[in-house]
Q: What sequence folds into this?
């Protein structure tokens, strides 16, 4: 229940919604570009975008065309900061919500309590 309550409070905030929309747009643009330039499936394109922008980079996919490689350089520069900012914002939001409602956590706010 905490997860859904926190998610709803996250979506009610306009700044958070804009960050979510921007992150989604970056992923969708990358997915479309890789699908058409590299000829990957939609799922493979989304997978590559996610592992690239979260800096996981398994190495199982990589652009093979020159235009795909050039786009990847641009995509990483533009998308990395946005995606990492989104992940950090979600983490901080959940942390703040948890601190506002400590009664649902039986062992206190943190391990030291």
A:
């Amino acid at each position: 229940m905490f997860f859904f309550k926190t998610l709803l409070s996250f979506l009610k905030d306009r700044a958070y919604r804009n960050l979510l929309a921007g992150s989604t747009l970056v992923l969708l643009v990358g997915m479309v570009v890789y699908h058409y330039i590299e000829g990957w499936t939609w799922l493979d394109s989304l997978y590559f975008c996610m592992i690239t922008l979260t800096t996981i980079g398994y190495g199982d996919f990589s652009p093979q065309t020159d235009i795909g490689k050039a786009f990847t350089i641009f995509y990483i520069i533009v998308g990395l900061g946005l995606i990492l900012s989104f992940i950090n914002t979600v983490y901080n939001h959940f942390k703040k919500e948890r601190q506002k409602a400590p009664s649902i956590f039986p062992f206190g706010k943190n391990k030291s309590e």
